[in-house]
Amino acid sequence: MNDFFDYSAPELVRMLGHRFKDYRLRTNMTQKEIAEATGLTIPTIQRFENGLSNNISLGTFLLLLKAVGCINGLDDLMPEQPESPYLYNDNNKKAQRVRHKKTES
Protein backbone atom coordinates (compact mmCIF):
# COMPACT_ATOMS: atom_id res chain seq x y z
CA MET A 1 0.00 0.00 0.00
CA ASN A 2 1.37 3.39 -1.02
CA ASP A 3 1.57 6.43 1.23
CA PHE A 4 0.65 9.40 -0.96
CA PHE A 5 0.60 12.02 1.80
CA ASP A 6 4.01 13.51 0.98
CA TYR A 7 3.36 13.76 -2.77
CA SER A 8 2.57 17.16 -4.24
CA ALA A 9 -0.64 17.63 -6.23
CA PRO A 10 1.25 17.80 -9.57
CA GLU A 11 3.11 14.58 -8.69
CA LEU A 12 -0.19 12.85 -7.94
CA VAL A 13 -1.68 14.10 -11.22
CA ARG A 14 1.33 12.73 -13.13
CA MET A 15 0.99 9.38 -11.37
CA LEU A 16 -2.73 9.22 -12.16
CA GLY A 17 -2.01 10.08 -15.80
CA HIS A 18 0.41 7.17 -16.10
CA ARG A 19 -2.09 4.86 -14.42
CA PHE A 20 -4.86 6.09 -16.67
CA LYS A 21 -2.78 5.25 -19.75
CA ASP A 22 -2.35 1.70 -18.43
CA TYR A 23 -6.11 1.40 -17.90
CA ARG A 24 -6.80 2.80 -21.39
CA LEU A 25 -4.43 0.30 -22.99
CA ARG A 26 -5.97 -2.57 -21.01
CA THR A 27 -9.42 -1.59 -22.27
CA ASN A 28 -7.97 -1.63 -25.81
CA MET A 29 -9.01 1.97 -26.48
CA THR A 30 -7.11 4.56 -28.47
CA GLN A 31 -6.67 8.15 -27.38
CA LYS A 32 -9.00 9.09 -30.24
CA GLU A 33 -11.71 6.77 -28.88
CA ILE A 34 -11.29 8.26 -25.41
CA ALA A 35 -11.54 11.76 -26.90
CA GLU A 36 -14.74 10.82 -28.71
CA ALA A 37 -16.24 9.21 -25.60
CA THR A 38 -15.42 12.15 -23.33
CA GLY A 39 -15.54 15.20 -25.58
CA LEU A 40 -11.95 16.01 -24.64
CA THR A 41 -9.22 16.74 -27.14
CA ILE A 42 -6.51 14.22 -28.00
CA PRO A 43 -3.77 16.67 -26.87
CA THR A 44 -5.46 16.96 -23.45
CA ILE A 45 -5.41 13.18 -23.09
CA GLN A 46 -1.82 12.98 -24.34
CA ARG A 47 -0.62 15.64 -21.85
CA PHE A 48 -2.37 13.86 -18.98
CA GLU A 49 -1.03 10.41 -19.87
CA ASN A 50 2.52 11.67 -20.45
CA GLY A 51 2.69 13.55 -17.14
CA LEU A 52 2.85 16.94 -18.84
CA SER A 53 -0.32 18.21 -17.22
CA ASN A 54 0.20 19.51 -13.68
CA ASN A 55 -3.49 19.83 -13.11
CA ILE A 56 -6.77 18.60 -14.59
CA SER A 57 -10.24 19.41 -13.39
CA LEU A 58 -12.16 16.92 -11.32
CA GLY A 59 -14.86 16.89 -14.00
CA THR A 60 -12.30 15.94 -16.65
CA PHE A 61 -10.91 13.18 -14.46
CA LEU A 62 -14.40 11.79 -13.86
CA LEU A 63 -15.07 11.73 -17.62
CA LEU A 64 -11.84 9.79 -18.13
CA LEU A 65 -12.75 7.31 -15.39
CA LYS A 66 -16.13 6.72 -17.02
CA ALA A 67 -14.53 6.15 -20.41
CA VAL A 68 -12.36 3.29 -19.13
CA GLY A 69 -15.07 1.83 -16.87
CA CYS A 70 -13.50 2.84 -13.55
CA ILE A 71 -16.11 5.31 -12.27
CA ASN A 72 -17.41 2.82 -9.70
CA GLY A 73 -13.99 2.99 -8.03
CA LEU A 74 -15.11 6.25 -6.43
CA ASP A 75 -16.56 4.25 -3.55
CA ASP A 76 -13.06 2.94 -2.84
CA LEU A 77 -11.58 6.43 -3.09
CA MET A 78 -14.04 8.11 -0.76
CA PRO A 79 -16.60 5.72 0.71
CA GLU A 80 -19.75 7.03 2.36
CA GLN A 81 -19.37 7.34 6.10
CA PRO A 82 -21.91 6.02 8.60
CA GLU A 83 -23.93 8.56 10.57
CA SER A 84 -22.02 10.05 13.48
CA PRO A 85 -23.48 11.49 16.69
CA TYR A 86 -20.84 14.23 16.41
CA LEU A 87 -22.71 15.61 13.39
CA TYR A 88 -25.62 16.73 15.55
CA ASN A 89 -25.71 19.83 17.72
CA ASP A 90 -27.33 20.35 21.13
CA ASN A 91 -30.76 20.83 19.52
CA ASN A 92 -30.45 17.45 17.76
CA LYS A 93 -30.13 19.20 14.39
CA LYS A 94 -27.54 18.08 11.89
CA ALA A 95 -24.56 20.41 11.78
CA GLN A 96 -23.94 22.22 8.51
CA ARG A 97 -20.41 23.38 9.36
CA VAL A 98 -17.83 23.14 12.10
CA ARG A 99 -17.27 26.09 14.40
CA HIS A 100 -14.83 26.20 17.24
CA LYS A 101 -15.66 28.15 20.36
CA LYS A 102 -13.45 31.14 21.00
CA THR A 103 -11.08 30.65 23.90
CA GLU A 104 -10.32 33.47 26.27
CA SER A 105 -6.70 34.54 26.50
What does this structure look like?
This protein has five helices and no strands. The protein has 105 residues and is mainly α. It has a domain at 9-77: lambda repressor-like DNA-binding domains (434 Repressor (Amino-terminal Domain)), CATH 1.10.260.40. It starts with 8 loop residues before the first helix and ends in a 28-residue tail after the last helix. The model has no long low-confidence stretch (mean pLDDT 91).
Give the rounded overall mean pLDDT. 91
Structure summary, number of beta strands: 0
Highest CATH level, the class of the domain at 9-77: Mainly Alpha
SSE arrangement, N to C: HHHHH
Give helix % range. 40-55%
Number of helices: 5
Return the structural class: mainly alpha
CATH architectural category of the domain at 9-77: Orthogonal Bundle
Write down the overall geometry: elongated
Keywords for this entry:
mainly alpha, 434 Repressor (Amino-terminal Domain), elongated, 105 residues
Blueprint (SSEs and pairs):
Blueprint: H1 9-26, H2 31-38, H3 42-49, H4 58-67, H5 74-77
Structure in a nutshell:
This protein is elongated. The protein has 105 residues and is mainly alpha-helical. Helix content is 46%, strand content 0%.
